[in-house]
Write a structure and sequence with these properties.
- The complex is a heterotrimer of chains A (234), B (300) and C (381).
- Chain A is of the alpha/beta class and 234 residues long.
- Helices cover 38% and strands 27% of the residues of chain A.
- In chain A, the strands form two sheets. Chain A has a six-stranded mixed beta sheet with strand order 6-7-8-3-9-10, sandwiched between helices.
- The two termini of chain A are 34 Å apart.
- Chain B has a single domain, classed as ABC transporter involved in vitamin B12 uptake, BtuC, CATH 1.10.3470.
- Helices cover 75% and strands 3% of the residues of chain B.
- Chain B contains twelve helices and two strands; from the N terminus they run αααααββααααααα.
- In chain B, strands 1-2 form a two-stranded antiparallel ribbon.
- In chain B, α2 runs antiparallel to α3, α2 crosses α9 and α7 crosses α9.
- The radius of gyration of chain B is 19 Å and the shape is globular.
- In chain C, α5 packs across α6.
- In chain C, the strands form three sheets. In chain C, strands 7-6-8-9-10-14-15 form a seven-stranded mixed beta sheet, with helices on both faces.
- Chain C is 48% helix and 19% strand.
- Chain C folds into two domains: 194 residues, Response regulator (Rossmann fold); 128 residues, Response regulator (Rossmann fold, 3-Layer(aba) Sandwich).
- By secondary structure, chain C is α/β, with parallel strands linked by helices.
- The chains are: A alpha/beta (234), B mainly alpha (300), C alpha/beta (381).
- At the B-C interface, α1 and α11 of B face β7, α7 and α8 of C.
């Protein structure tokens, strides 16, 4: 479904990604874990088209999309929910959701909106409020709901649990699993490695701009090195 | 005396509305570009002037139709807006220049346009044929011209149209999303560069229509954009940067302030008193009448 | 090696220049004794070039007219033109060159008053007559004994304008409207105010605006309230045209008396019907029923293809005044005799009117009062 092949990228003279290979199979949740600064977010930015790689390519649905602008990738079904939620704070909750369906021209937008509201009753209550007035957890739900409005083929989630209370975090992970079960492929970047590995099918571990380790989520959960480095040595 | 004074005040009310409506029209285009790009388009006053000339050139071919004239003004100005975007704004955005750089580049475009107009049309003022300007009506002793009515109607319609566009349409929402955060808008599938180009063109078209209407009401000359540009700029500060109803209301307030100053104080105080009022309003509400501080959401 | 060549080249260059200068000065000096040689310092390039070129045309027509009639006392008139580009330093340099190198008898120009304030004292110190033909600022003649002008300033036109228009229209109250960020219109407004009061007219409203303003309705509504017998407007034609239109629209149908801005044909083109009947004083009127004027207009039109403007007419009269002074002084190299002869001139009949110098060398003449009728200026009678 989505392949990242030998991607190198960075900011100015700083090389962040030093040759990354990733493979996301259809219908799976693939987790990308690693320490802060390992290059996880940069990887997602390259996939979403926000950052041009200096080498390598991104293949989506069998097509090389490395040269396509971010908006074209979004329209093709590769939907990125960036770190820090990035809701449009000055637009209302409903407008944010409608913007999620911006690239769609079908008649089922209203139906999908209804589904998002059913899934997130809080958003329905606040549909007329500016998104900037929502709490952190609500904003994360809005960001995910907005991404769903695009009917994504692959959903790129960057740190969806960041800054959220444990209860809300659990809800978000449950939600990610649910979305996946409905048929959406997910590439999940998380610092909360344990939770991520619990819901993922496959996972990659990043260290200083490279893939250090990969395997099925179950394997990695039991991998000594992963446990020591990322799961708090439990 | 009483009846006469009432008539005078009624006339001044009309004067204030018609003056204010022209200011508002100019301010709408400024506010649209500022709201979307966060930059002040210093060439707006000169695109406004060219709008008037586009209309005049069409009329001089013998086509005496006000709607056709306004379409020519809007269309010609929109093309100028597109050129402005491609020549002066987009290259700077690509290089991630700050907010001051486009200010300078649009000043440059403005100077270029003014010189170009001087070359093409000469320094003299020109006026639209009387046939197009229509007559005037008497309203309880006061006089209203047809052009006044057109300007006020056009101002209100354009404001309403702009508000509907921004709040109700997909394009408008994409414009607002682009205004708030270009990166996020792109992730939602918005071709932000295209949206910006459309916004700049739309603002230029608004400026062109404003110029044609002001030209119709008064006269057309290469320097006509300067005073209106300056006032339009003050109005968007007063109305709240990037705010559409704020621009409309701000224009009317400035128009009234000038007229009332003339009536109550002295005409030589006109601009000074009007700008003092603007200043005082800004002291009370530093973000403008509809400033962002108290309207985090509904910008439209 | 290289430096030797450079020096040799420089020496050669200097030698050639000196030779050329000597040859040139030689011929010039020889010629000077057999002609009346005048200098003219005009704005011939830059923003004001249109004025300077009109002046040049007026001067050339006058020169050729004189020479075609056999010159003055058998000697032809010659004019050396210098371009000041409207700049004071250029004007001063041009005057110095004309006086010291070209050894002219007297100088016409410069075009602008500020140039005259810089160049006039220079000519005065050199005891060479200099006469402005378009300098209308106050105090030009007062610069010195050798400084003159034949151009009637707006302040000299206004007394006639008010006297004649009041006589004919019999107004008692007036509203004065003027642009107060323009020195010319503002100083004219002050003269209007003084003359109106001198003539016993009550000013019931004084309203101001700025150059570049377009909406005058607030001021005009106030004037409407004051209900004067006449509107007096001191503005450039652009603002005047808009003001007249808006005044008529608001129902102000009083007669209008205007300052110099009303002398432009642009006023009627812009204001149309609203300018009908407007009254203005002018130092120059090409339509005057006077054979002298009609002959000048016809010959100018034939040669340059258009009606002479004020600049051309005043320039023409300027050289004719010089010719009169030359005839009376009789000597093409005696600058003092020329100056004294010029100062003596009284009741000289020129195309701009009957002309005398006052004791300072400023003009004393009546302006022509004109009225716009059907898009044409006619004498207001």
């Amino acid at each position: 479904m989505l392949q990242v092949e030998d991607v190198r990228a960075g900011y100015g003279a700083v090389q962040v990604l030093k040759g990354i290979r990733l493979h996301v199979s259809q219908g799976q949740i693939v987790a990308l874990i690693g320490a802060n600064g390992a290059g996880k977010t940069t990887t997602l930015r390259v996939i979403a088209g926000q950052l041009r790689p200096s080498a390598g390519r991104v293949v989506f649905g069998g097509e090389d999309i490395s040269r396509r602008p971010a908006y074209a990738r979004a329209r093709a079904g590769l939907v990125h929910v960036p770190e820090g939620r990035a809701v449009l704070t000055r637009m209302t909750v409903q407008e944010n959701l409608e913007m999620g369906a911006y690239a769609r021209a079908d008649a089922e937008v209203a139906h999908d909106l209804e589904r998002v509201f059913t899934r997130f009753p809080r958003l329905r209550e606040r549909r007329r409020q500016p998104a900037g007035t929502l709490s952190g957890g609500e904003q994360q739900m809005l960001a995910i709901g907005r991404a769903l409005m695009a009917r994504p083929k692959v959903l790129l989630l960057d740190e969806p649990s960041m800054g959220l209370a444990p209860l809300v975090t659990a809800e978000i992970f449950r939600l990610i699993q649910e979305i996946n079960q409905e048929g959406t492929t997910i590439l999940l970047v998380e610092q909360n490695a344990r939770q991520a590995l619990r819901i993922a099918h496959y996972a990659y571990v990043m260290e200083t701009g490279q893939i250090a380790l990969e395997g099925s989520a179950k394997e990695l959960l039991n991998n000594r090195r992963v446990v020591d480095a990322y799961l708090g040595g439990a | 005396m009483g009846a006469r004074a009432t008539t005078v005040w009624f006339q001044q009310l009309i004067n204030g509305v018609s003056l204010g409506a022209t200011y508002s029209l100019v301010a709408l285009g400024y506010t649209l570009v500022f709201g979307t790009l966060g930059i002040i388009n210093m060439a707006h006053g000169d695109i406004f002037m060219f709008g008037a000339f586009f209309g005049l050139v069409l009329v001089e071919t013998g086509l005496l139709s006000a709607p056709a004239m306004l379409v020519a003004a809007a269309g010609g100005a929109a093309i100028m807006g597109l050129l402005l975007e491609y020549i002066a704004l987009r290259p700077l955005r690509r290089r991630q220049a700050g907010h001051l750089t486009p200010l300078i580049s649009t000043i440059g475009v403005g100077i270029f346009l003014r010189s170009l107009a001087l070359q093409l049309f000469g320094p003299d003022s020109k006026s639209f044929p009387m046939a197009l300007r229509g007559g005037s009506y008497r309203l309880g002793g006061a006089v209203v011209t047809q052009v006044d009515i057109v300007i006020l109607t056009a101002g209100l319609l354009l404001m309403l149209g702009l508000w509907l566009l921004l709040s109700r349409t997909k394009l408008g929402k994409a414009m607002r999303a682009t205004a708030e955060n270009q990166a996020t808008a792109a992730l939602l599938g918005v071709n932000t560069e295209a949206i910006i180009a459309v916004t700049v063109m739309l603002a230029a078209a608004l400026g062109g229509v404003a110029g044609a209407l002001v030209g119709l009401s008064f006269a057309v000359s290469p320097t006509m954009g300067l005073p209106y540009g300056l006032k339009g700029l003050s109005i968007i500060v007063l109305g709240g940067m990037g705010n559409v109803p704020g621009a409309m209301l701000g224009g009317l307030i400035l128009g009234f302030a000038e007229v009332i100053t003339v009536q109550l104080l002295s005409s030589s105080w006109r601009d000074m008193a009007a700008f003092t009022l603007l200043f005082l309003l800004l002291v009370v509400k530093p973000d403008g009448l509809f400033g962002r501080a108290q309207q985090a959401g509904g910008r439209a | 090696m290289k430096s030797v060549r450079v020096v040799a080249f420089a020496v050669a260059l200097v030698a050639v220049s000196v030779a050329a200068a000597v040859a040139w000065l030689g011929t010039e000096a020889a010629y000077a004794q057999s002609a009346w040689r005048f200098g003219a310092v005009l704005v011939l390039s830059g923003d004001g070039a249109a004025y300077g070129n009109s002046q040049r045309e007026g001067l050339e027509l006058a020169r050729d007219t004189i020479n075609a009639a056999g010159g003055i006392l058998g000697m032809p008139v010659e004019i050396i033109f210098e371009d000041s580009r409207g700049e004071r330093t250029e004007a001063v340099n041009a005057v110095l060159k004309l006086i010291n190198r070209d050894r002219v008898l007297a100088i016409i120009g410069p075009t602008y008053s500020p140039e005259m304030f810089a160049a006039g004292p220079v000519a005065d110190r050199a005891r060479t007559t200099i006469m402005g033909i378009s300098t209308t600022a106050v105090g030009i003649g007062e610069i010195g004994d050798y400084v003159f002008r034949n151009s009637l300033p707006e302040e000299g036109v206004i007394p006639t304008t008010i006297r004649v228009s009041k006589e004919k229209l019999g107004y008692r109250t007036a509203a004065l409207l003027y642009s107060n960020n323009n020195d010319f219109t503002k100083s004219a407004a002050e003269t209007f105010e003084r003359e109106l009061r001198t003539n016993g007219v009550e000013l019931v409203a004084i309203e101001t605006f700025h150059d570049g303003d377009t909406d005058f309705r607030a001021q005009l509504t106030k004037v409407l309230q004051a209900n004067p017998d006449v509107l007096v407007v001191s503005a450039l034609y652009k603002e005047a045209a808009l003001l007249l239109q808006q005044a008529r629209q608001l129902g102000l149908d009083q007669p209008v008396v205007g300052g110099n801005g009303f002398n432009s044909p642009e006023l009627y083109r812009l204001a149309g019907e609203a300018a009908e009947g407007a009254i203005v004083g002018s130092p120059w009127f090409p339509g005057r029923d006077d054979p002298l004027v009609q002959d000048f207009v016809a010959r100018y039109q034939e040669r340059y293809g258009r009606v002479p403007d004020q600049f051309a007419a005043q320039a023409y009269d300027g050289l004719m005044l010089f010719a009169e002074a030359a005839r009376r002084s009789g000597n093409p190299t005696n600058r003092q005799a020329f100056r004294d002869a010029l100062a003596q001139i009284r009741n000289f009949e020129g195309v701009t009117g009957v002309f005398s110098f006052d004791e300072h060398g400023n003009p004393m003449m009546d302006a022509t009062i004109l009225q716009l009728r059907g898009g044409e200026y006619v004498e207001f009678k």
